[in-house]
Design goal:
The chain is of the alpha/beta class. It is 41% helix and 21% strand. The radius of gyration is 22 Å and the shape is globular. The termini are far apart.
Length: 494
């Protein structure tokens, strides 16, 4: 029996999971879970990074208590784009900013005045989002940040924690690509582009591939937690890259959809797909396992439902996600729709109020009940899935008959069915814990316990239950899709 320890840190929560590889199957055991979220300080949003580090050590201690020397390796993944900055003495220069902080609002146009939008896309192949590391760093340049001036090393979030675990500073490939500072054509940082923007290129660390053995656990961390000095593997540091590694697909004619706070929908390619059409559709080329690229679209995802739930909880009404889905299922179909391309839905706040306001502004009857609001968001999300699926088929020029939905959002059966209905494709849901599974698979690949990603995916199919959804009522969804496209045009023209 082989036991891998995976740390998976998402925007809402983190957990430590032990993967037991035995009898040609993988079994997961969650041993520690902890909340995560932004902390507002003087009007800015940050991550409470030292608390997260404490939780990581707690998870390590619990794993050591349970399994001690039987632990084989450690791997860690997090969300993308955010980072820590280190001084010359390797101390952390302040709390890392949260990607939803307002400091990047309106900055993309300022960047494009220096380096045009097409030139940035040609160099990086990354979708344009104000949360990207590139614009966060440019915000510091614009304000003359003393922190940036003192920086010796830039590390994305998983790389920062890996440094604290091992003492080695390196940038793992999959997380590096999310920054929009990486050039896939040369396989290194886009130094001349960064220089034009005043971002010091020398702060970026060596890039390594997922599966690289970083080093053994630091003696100080091992002694504090009681853990053995086991190897720390640079897993696929970006949580979506880890999740995609666990897609239980046997062929190539599929779309993957990582469903959670964000919905990340795309295909795996052997090389980046960067052309005028992919730029026009704003698709991204992020690093994958085994030198692949995840050609995908970032979609706002279940963030809308999460924020509605938080807003209602603030007013004293608490609902589980299952309760919200049940209310949505009972609401009338296609009462109103929203465009997920409207940036008003990106920051935290009164999401139910914003949804109603959008509907009023676009000539629709605003949803009144909680069930109507959630149904509006889920149907709109499924229609955005259709738009992305159609564009993917066009861009890669091949049939894509199945959508594999995985991650926490794959538990939302109503959304899974809507995805099948809206896209007219078969949907296979699961595994829920795809990110932790992919993290473990990359560790196993790095240490030679499995020979290939295809072997790892076969292991997933043997080990975890999957659920299949078939499309229904195509005519009703076709009509709703035309309404959705019209709303997108209104947003684009506003």
């Amino acid at each position: 029996m082989t036991k891998f320890l995976a740390f998976d840190l998402g925007a809402e929560s983190g957990r430590a999971v032990v993967g037991h590889l035995e009898d040609n199957r993988l079994r997961l055991e969650e041993i520690h879970r902890f909340p995560n979220g932004p902390v507002r300080v003087l009007g800015s949003l940050h991550w409470d990074v030292l608390r997260l580090w404490t939780e990581i050590k707690q998870g390590l201690a619990l794993a050591a208590q349970a399994y001690g020397p039987a632990l084989t390796a450690i791997g860690l993944d997090t969300w993308g784009v955010d980072f820590g900055l280190l001084a010359a003495d390797d101390s952390l220069l302040g709390n890392p900013y949260h990607y939803r902080d307002s400091r990047t609002e309106g900055l993309m146009d300022k960047v494009f005045q220096i380096v045009p939008r097409p030139a940035i896309y040609e160099r990086t192949g990354i979708q344009f989002l104000p949360i990207n590391s590139l614009y966060q760093l440019f915000a510091m340049v614009r304000t003359g940040s003393s922190t940036l001036a003192c920086t010796r090393t830039f590390l994305n979030m998983p790389d920062l924690f890996n440094f604290w675990l091992t003492g080695r500073q390196a940038s793992e490939f999959t997380i590096a690509t999310t920054s929009q500072c990486y050039d896939p054509w040369v396989g290194d940082w886009a130094g001349d582009m960064l220089d034009k923007l005043g971002i010091p290129a020398h702060i970026f660390a060596e890039i390594i591939q997922p599966g690289t053995v970083l080093d053994s656990l630091l003696t100080s961390v091992a002694e504090e937690t009681g853990a053995p000095a086991i190897p720390v593997i640079a897993s696929a540091g970006h949580d979506t890259a880890s999740a995609v590694a666990a897609v239980p697909a046997a062929g190539a004619d599929y779309i993957y959809l990582s469903s959670g706070t964000w919905s990340l929908m795309g295909v795996e390619l052997d090389e980046p797909l960067i052309n005028e059409q992919s730029l026009a559709y704003d698709f991204t080329n992020e690093g994958g396992v085994g030198g692949t690229f995840r050609f995908l679209k970032n979609i706002m995802g279940l963030w809308l439902v999460q924020e509605c739930r938080r807003e209602w909880a603030r007013s004293g009404e608490s609902f589980s996600y299952d309760e919200l889905s049940r209310m949505a299922a009972e609401a009338p179909a296609f009462g109103s729709l929203i465009s997920l391309k409207d940036t008003r839905f990106l920051p935290p706040g009164d999401m139910p109020g914003r949804i109603r306001a959008f509907c009023r502004e676009t000539g629709q009857s605003p949803p009144e009940t909680k069930g109507q609001i959630i149904r509006c968001t889920l149907e709109s999300l499924a229609l955005e899935y259709r738009w992305v699926a159609e564009r993917l088929g066009e861009l890669v020029d091949q049939p894509l008959s199945t959508i594999h939905i995985f991650g926490g959002g794959s538990q939302n059966r109503l959304l899974n069915q809507f995805a099948a209905d809206a896209t007219g494709r078969r949907v296979v849901a699961g595994p829920v814990e795809a990110t932790a599974i992919g993290n473990i698979l990359v560790q196993a690949l790095g240490l030679g316990h499995i020979a290939s990603l295809a072997e790892g995916r076969a292991l997933v199919r043997r080990s975890f239950a999957l659920e299949t959804y078939k499309p229904r009522d195509p005519a009703a969804w076709d009509e709703a899709y035309q309404r959705y496209l019209a709303l997108n045009k209104q947003v684009a023209g506003s």
